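We examine the record.

___
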Amino acid sequence: MRQLFNSTYVTLDGVIEGPHLWPALKGGTSDEGEAIQTELLQKCDIVLMGRRTYDVFAPAWSSRSGDPYSDRINTMRKVVVSTTLTDPEWNNTEVIASDVVDRVRDLKAQDGGHIVQYGFGDVSRLLLEHGLFDQLHLWIHPQLVGPSDDNDLLYRPGSAAAFDLVDSRVLSNGIVVATYAP
């Protein structure tokens, strides 16, 4: 049985939207962070995403190759939750347009590698509400981004959930990768 992991970048003030627009961290991109992300991706054989994540990931990753992360994500199975995407161009991509909770339960029940989902939007909240996540990997960036729209924040009104810290790593650039399980 597969497990479902979420991996999300978040600032100290709870912003999750547009990490590529956040001020650069002192020390820049971390080789440690890339290794952790690649290690997580290697455990998985499905990337699950919503339409907004697909629209960012597909053009960014499909144009890259030659490193373990981009080579892996480009060849693996991708599942997009969307009622508007009908003809995905990124290879190995399928669309779930309805019965999302049941379809994700079915994916989890299959044999194979695990499932990873990036970001924390409407799809994540639905999965959280139905207890489908096995782990949350929060990449806590040591910065405040400032005023943001409610849709840009990790916390939004909804179902409460409690988690246990099962692992943490502090990267040389100050990012803390905290792994939680329900």
Observations:
- The radius of gyration is 16 Å.
